[in-house]
Design goal:
With 98 residues, the protein is an alpha/beta fold. Helix content is 32%, strand content 30%. The longest helix has 11 residues, at 29-39.
Amino acid sequence: MLTELNKDNFNEQTKTGVKLIEFYTDWCGYCKKQQPELEEMGKVWIGQINADNSPEVAARFNINSFPSFLIMKNGEEVERFSGMHKKENLMSKIMHHI
């Protein structure tokens, strides 16, 4: 389940549970290639932040490459990685924190 995040809803949406967050931009070729992998993850909650539209959130986490991912658990960052990833790899990373 892909959910668009921004500065107004980020804290509320990420305060409980294990959440996968993707920072992307519209101009990023790798981000465009990543999108189908995310869409195939079905009912997994994934928050997406367009860093061009929400630069304050990207700056808060010092994001400067795309796509970049955070795994958050109960509102705290527990893992960070960047680059394109297959859905199996993303699922494995999420399951590590559940």
